[in-house]
Amino acid sequence: MSELTLFILRFGFLAVLWIFVFVIVYALRSDLFGHYVRRGADTGRDRGDVVLNNEAAGTAFIPPAPTAPTEDPARTLLIVAGAREGLEIPLESDQLTIGRSAQSGLVIRDEYTSTNHARLQLWNGGWVIQDLESTNGTFVNNQRVSVPTPVPPYVPVSIGSTIFELRP
Predict the structure, then answer these.
(1) Stretch 76-91: mean pLDDT, rounded?
(2) Lowest-pLDDT range, 8-17, 20-29, 38-47, 114-123?
(3) How far is CA 68 from the centre of its chain?
(4) SS3 160
(5) Which three-class secondary structure state does DSSP give residue 61?
(6) C-beta separation of 62 from 53 below 8 A
């Protein structure tokens, strides 16, 4: 085998090795810090609508126009199963992020929860949960969430090994 061929093989192997290292670093970075989400030009914001994106399903959810709420929304999140069972969290703001990240409003540390797993948001006088492209999914009443889904009081929501309910 000539020296030129040997040099090209060595250089190619080194290039493949570095590509492998960069792919691993990118995967670790996205798991630790989340994915960067770019907003498209047509997201409905020119009409003043709030848009909840679900890029995994390739759709955008534009909720209906706000109406007067018929009843008070739930103001407490109660964990009914999991490592933090019995914990009550008052829902003081209109949004709560859930995941392993320290920046989440509800931190769930188990191997089935993603860094940025789901978002619970007050919309139209009721709570809506949105899965943030998690690996293992978010379930409302044992149904996997693929688009932002309303969460009525006393209905179980599963994230990883934790189950919680909203209470008035």
Answers:
(1) 89
(2) 38-47
(3) 28
(4) coil
(5) strand
(6) no
Q: How many residues can be counted in the chain? A: 168
Task: Check: CB of residue 142 under 8 Å from CB of residue 61.
Answer: no
If residue 166 lies in a helix (H) or strand (E), which one and from where to where?
A: strand 162-167
Q: What's the rounded Cα separation, in Å, for the pair 155 and 145?
A: 14
Beta bridge partners of 138: 159
What is the band of 62 on the pLDDT scale with cuts at 50, 70, 90?
Answer: low
DSSP string, 69-123: -SSPPP-EEEEEESTTTT-EEE--SSEEEEESSTTSSEE--STTS-TT-EEEEEE
Q: Kindly state the average pLDDT of the residues 27-33.
A: 76
DSSP per-residue string spanning 123-148: ETTEEEEEE-S-SS-EEETTEE-SS-
Which helix (DSSP H) or strand (DSSP E) does residue 15 occupy?
A: helix 3-33
> Which tokens sit at 146?
């693929």
One-letter amino acid of 89: I
Q: What is the Cα Rg of the chain in Å?
A: 21
Q: Computed from CA positions of residues 77, 108, 103, 151, in that sequence, does the dihedral angle turn out positive or negative? A: negative
Determine contact, residues 103/118, Cβ cutoff 8 Å: no
Rounded to an integer, what distance in angstroms lies between the CA atom of residue 147 and that of residue 71?
24
